[in-house]
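Before the break, one more example. Copy the sequence into your notebook; we will annotate it together after we see the structure.
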Amino acid sequence: MLIATDEAGRVVKRPSKPTIGGMLANLRRGNAHLILERMEEHTEGCWYVQVLLRDDNTYQLEFRDGVAAEHCQTRTISQEKVLTAMLGWAKGTSDWKHGFMWNNIGSRFET
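Here is what the structure looks like once it is written out:
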């Protein structure tokens, strides 16, 4: 099941495209991040994509594919690109990462 959560505490199970788009469009100071998380029974690890609207009005986009070693980050000024990536991730398409230069930051989270 897909779950969308924002910093303001709004939680939406099985969010639609318009819901994800609206939550992204409503990011601002005090509600600056949005997480889409895939919760599946019998699946270990954390699977999510998240975005943070930074103080300089850029978007910090990250994803994690199950384990800390597969945690990557990028930045963009384009809300449209972030939305396209988040919707692609939600649908499980393979091309949602294209158009970004990703940095693996998994070493920050390994214990």
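The chain has two helices and seven strands. The chain has a mean pLDDT of 91. Try to locate both features in your own notes.
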